[in-house]
Give the backbone structure.
Amino acid sequence: MTNLVPARVAYATGPRDERAAATEVAAARRTRDVPDLATFDVILVNSSGGKDSQAMLDVVAVAASAARVLHRVVVQHNDLRRVEWPGTRDLARRQAEHYGLRFEVRRRSGPDLLEDIRQRGKFPDAARRWCTSDHKRGPGRTLITALVHELRLDRPARVLQCFGFRAEESPGRAGRAELSYDQGASTQTTRHVWTWLPIHSWTVDEVWARIHATGVPYHPAYDLGMSRLSCSFCVLASKRDLLTACRARPDLAYEYAAVEAEIGHSFRKDLRMAQLIEEAGM
Ligand code: SF4
């Protein structure tokens, strides 16, 4: 395992030293290797319960076990309530338990995503993904705060947050670095947060091969034909996935259509939920 995060960088200069941070990032890009997990106080795995999270969790668990820091790994699931596929939270829990890992659920206080859409009078879109920032990233930050507080360190905690993002998912994700310093999640005095994308370069076939090799259960929505999980009706999903979701979750589809009609704003610029329902033959 290559040490990409030498202690000199981690503690003497601190990640706010731009040159040190750039050195770490450049090293990760060059080697496509595992960062030195032993230099992090908390390794936080963000699990949607979907296939990419599941494969990524296996990679992180194996690497953390090899580095003898499996006890520092915490799996977090952001509960999206009615808009996520039924059973997702419990599945994410079982996947974490398979590796003997601590499991934490966070959810946004206040309205769930669909009610939030109704109150705002508009759906999110690719350019305005407040759904992710408000309903996923925001609640996730509260867990980082709590975990760092538990440690009671007399120095800033080093936190490595792991995501199952893959380059082939979108141009936006392709442009992300495998290891980067998260300025927005970090503070000067309490925590220095890094983001690691362990399966960034993987293909979907590699993801499924890894899942099948582990024997850990995956969400049954994939066997219905879904290519992605998370929100059943994601504004960024393919039409094929949306039609599959309509047939699998007709009640929720009608709830989306009712909100769409009430606010007079289309689910997607090019696609109304009412049209999807009709095309799904419901
Ligand atoms: S899955 Fe789609 S709709 Fe749901 S939070 Fe993510 S981007 Fe937004």
